[in-house]
Amino acid sequence: MKLLLDFLPLILFFAAFKFAEGNPDAAAAFSTEHFGFLVQGGIVGAQEAPVLLATVVVMIATLAQAAILKLRGKKIDLMLWISLGLVVVLGGATVWFHNETFIKWKPTGLYWAMALTLWIAQAAFGKNLIQKMLSAELPLPDAIWLKLNRAWVLFFAAMGVVNLYVAYNFSTSAWANFKVFGVTGLILLFTLAQGLYLSKHLPQEKDTKS
Asked: pTM for this one?
């Protein structure tokens, strides 16, 4: 349930974008009628309708995600608060100014915020957040945890750069595909690579058989 809730805004963004991309005139008419008051000039064109409609959908979905957690008495973690703030500010700017550049910066802002959070927690407060999350399942030396934390900092920093490269060098449709499939694939590959690295440093189970 939690995994679905975490990915719901991304799934809805992609679905709304692809549907509107295939039906631009209908999406433009729908967006103008229902969300025209959010848009400068009050009219959404067919060319801009897919990303604007998808942006409104992801804004609503992220707000709903936070509201559901609150209603269920669950803690809203820092990354969700940051994501919510970014999607409201950058999403709002995208819709109002008819400019998709703002929402394209949202993933980069989130990746860099995650990188900074991990780095500052370690550098300024001596807290390894990766170790805090995983140490119960993975008994590793402190030196390995430090390397793991640095690896995630570099990974998130690099992902922010890669997102901007795709956003500025490819079409919005290609960027949307990358946002869903490319990012997921890169995170999976990075996680698998780390798993292989960590397997070499896990303590070996002693053979208790006589």
From this structure: 0.90
Please say whether the beta carbons of 44 and 36 come within 8 A. Answer: yes
Is 38 in contact with 63 (CB distance < 8 Å)? Answer: no
> Whole-angstrom Cα distance, residue 139 to residue 47?
53
The phi-psi region of residue 77 (left if phi > 0; otherwise alpha if psi is between -120 and 50; otherwise beta) is beta
How buried is residue 82: exposed, middle or buried, by Cβ count under 10 Å (0-12/13-18/19+)? middle
Give the separation between CA 79 and CA 62, rounded to whole angstroms: 12
pLDDT tens track for 71-128:
999 888 888 999 999 999 999 999 999 999 999 999 999 999 999 999 999 999 999 9
Cβ contact 76:70 at 8 Å: yes
Q: What is the helix (H) or strand (E) element at residue 163, kind and residue range? A: helix 142-169
d(Cα 96, Cα 59) in Å, to the nearest integer?
13
Structure tokens that stand for 119 in this block: 């780095």
Rounded Cα distance between 41 and 44, Å, is: 8
Calpha distance 164→87 (Å, rounded): 16
